[in-house]
Structure formats: structure tokens, C-alpha cells
Design goal:
Length: 334
């Protein structure tokens, strides 16, 4: 194939790790941009496992038609153990070379970027796109899928709130988030939950759970909503302890993988499409080893090693606000 002034002539795209609403929009954004640039696009199925096994499909504009609005990922996704071995990595590099893939767009979370970095060290050009419902990636203020997942959880919690009100019960709801509480806190704020338990804030069960429920009850509340990030104690245990200490009837719901599904909402569609576009443009410009990220409302890109080294900064003020607005404790914000 004759070289043009483009940084790459043929690129691969894969999705890896847990899926998130918006992955398809990112794929379409990248494929259509590549088409416009005269770059060939290859979809790699099942994440890095597909790269090892040569599970490819050539993608053109019609293959990605109508997928922006769909949840999941048309390329499937996986977490590959083999890719974490030297042999697996080498096989992935070999298949890239065999298939003429000069640049690779990897859509996923931190683990996906760590994999991309290993490929870069072995001579493959890589660009990462942050996509996880957890919003737990240090280098970006937003990850594709977060908004849709929050809204799915909010809808479920609102519905649970209706039946908790009728029966004057306490609902203890587990939400995803891996080791973080971004999803839980945002759901707690958006639903006006009684309590949100997240790993970023330590808590004393008697004071911060039982004490707050008692305070809320004294203030006239008859039903209660406790949102628990999955990294915390099991919701069953928390619910039993609340019941024993207060006598309030409790019910437990683990929202689970329902939070990962569904059609992406506007924010995820637009950011995913724009990140797919940006990733291809970077490769076309000859850039390598970059992660596309959001800095507030601004889209940026940064070096993948620098991106991986960044720690997520938890917004403690947001948590403080949540607590204050729930308990209306005079002086709490002073
Ligand atoms: O990272 C996304 C996520 O949904 C986390 O919130 C959760 O901890 C994990 O993936 C669940 O993974 P699996 O799909 O392997 O059950």
C-alpha cells in the first residue's frame, strides 16, 4: 500500500472491559471519520482477545449505520487474561502487523489503556477513548456511559421511592461504580436520598446511618432511601442492621448490570461521537500514545502514560452539599 501524507492508512478499533452506553456511538464516530479521511477501518471483536485471535471485520460506513442510539457494543467486549502475558501481547502485535493495522483505537477504562500502552511500547500506534459507567478515570472529568448509567439508576431509585413511601419502608440500593462512589453520589443527589455510602468518605454506622435515619424520622420523614456504592459493605447486611436498630422495615435492591445497558442519552452520544472523531484525527495527524479526555466541557488529549498516572480528584464539596441538603442541620454549611 502506498504511503500518503496521512499518519496511518489502516486502523483498528476495539472495545474492552465492561461495556457502557455510548460505545457504539464512539465506534461510528471513528469509522465515519476514517472514511472521510480515506483511512481503512478494521473492527476487532471481543477486545484484546480478538486482537490475539485475529477476530476482525472490515468496517465501512454502512456497517455502523444506526448504531449511535444503541446500547452495548457491536464489536463485543471482553477482559482478556492472555493479553496480560508476554506471549499474548506478542501475538496481538503480530496480528496487527499481519493485518496492516498501523494505529489502534481502544475504547474502555484504565485497564484498556494499560493494554494500549503495552502495544505502543511494542511499536503499535494507539489512541484511547475513556468509556465506563463508573467515571473513575483520573485523566478525564467525564467517561462515556456515566450519564446514561446515572439516569438508569435514578429512574430505578425513583420507582423504588414510590413503593417505599406507600409502605413507609427503608430501601437499601446497591449501585455500581467499581471501587469508587461517583455513580452512587450522583444518584443520591439526583434522587434526594437519605444517605449515600461511598468509599471516598469513611462513616460510623451508628452515627452516620442509624443516627441520620433517626434524625430524618424526627423531622417527619416516613420512608428512607440509602444508596450504597458496590465497594461498601453488602446491602443485605446494612439493611438488616438498620431494621434491627430502628424497627423500620427494609428492602434491598442491587441494580447490577441493568445500569450498563440501555440506549445512550444525548451527552453520551455526543461526547462518544466527538471522541471517535478526535481519535481518528489524532492518528491521521501522526499522533501516537494519546488518550482523549474531557476537562470540564473542553475535549483535550494527553499522553497515555501521563493519563494513567493521574489520580481522580474526589469532589468533597459535592458530598458536603448532599449531606447538608438532606439533613438541613442549621449551621452545617458554616
Ligand atoms: O467497570 C464497569 C463495571 O460495571 C463496574 O461498575 C463493576 O464493578 C464491574 O464493571 C462489573 O463487571 P462484570 O461485567 O465483569 O460483572
Amino acid at each position: 500500500m502506498e504511503k500518503t501524507e496521512l499518519g496511518v492508512n489502516r486502523i483498528g478499533i476495539l472495545t474492552s472491559g465492561g461495556d457502557a452506553p455510548g460505545m457504539n456511538a464512539a465506534i461510528r464516530g471513528a469509522v465515519r471519520t476514517a472514511q472521510c479521511m480515506g483511512i481503512q477501518c478494521v473492527g476487532i471483536r471481543h477486545g484484546y482477545a480478538g486482537l490475539i485471535n485475529g477476530d476482525f471485520t472490515v468496517l465501512d460506513e454502512s456497517d455502523v449505520s444506526g448504531i449511535t442510539k444503541r446500547g452495548g457494543t457491536m464489536l463485543y467486549t471482553a477482559r482478556s487474561k492472555e493479553f496480560q502475558t508476554e506471549e499474548g501481547l506478542q501475538r496481538a502485535v503480530d496480528t496487527c502487523k499481519y493485518m496492516g493495522i498501523e494505529g489502534l483505537i481502544t475504547i474502555g477504562g484504565d485497564g484498556t489503556f494499560r493494554g494500549a500502552l503495552e502495544l505502543y511500547k511494542r511499536g503499535i500506534k494507539v489512541i484511547g477513548i475513556p468509556c465506563t459507567i463508573d467515571n473513575d478515570i483520573g485523566c478525564t472529568t467525564y467517561t462515556i456511559g456515566f450519564d446514561t448509567a446515572c439516569n438508569t439508576a435514578i429512574d430505578a431509585v425513583d420507582k423504588l421511592g414510590d413503593t417505599m413511601q406507600s409502605h413507609e419502608r427503608c430501601s437499601v440500593v446497591e449501585v455500581m461504580g467499581h471501587e469508587t462512589g461517583y455513580l452512587a453520589l450522583n444518584v443520591g443527589i439526583a434522587t434526594g436520598a437519605t444517605i449515600t455510602l461511598i468509599p471516598e468518605v469513611s462513616y460510623d454506622f451508628d452515627k452516620d446511618v442509624i443516627g441520620r435515619i433517626r434524625t430524618a424520622r424526627l423531622a417527619g420523614r416516613t420512608h428512607f432511601m440509602v444508596i450504597v456504592a458496590e465497594a461498601m459493605d453488602p446491602v443485605q447486611t446494612i439493611a438488616e442492621k438498620i431494621n434491627q436498630a430502628t424497627g423500620i422495615e427494609t428492602r434491598v435492591t442491587a441494580l447490577g448490570h441493568v445500569q450498563r445497558g440501555g440506549d445512550p442519552l444525548m451527552r453520551d452520544r455526543v461526547i462518544a461521537t466527538s471522541m471517535g472523531y478526535r481519535a481518528v484525527m489524532l492518528l491521521a495527524e501522526g499522533k501516537n500514545s494519546r488518550v482523549v479526555a474531557m476537562d470540564g466541557d473542553i475535549m483535550i488529549d494527553l499522553d497515555i502514560e501521563e493519563a494513567l498516572a493521574k489520580e481522580k480528584v474526589f469532589d468533597m464539596e459535592q458530598y458536603r452539599m448532599f449531606t447538608a441538603l438532606t439533613f438541613l442541620d442549621k449551621g452545617i454549611l458554616r
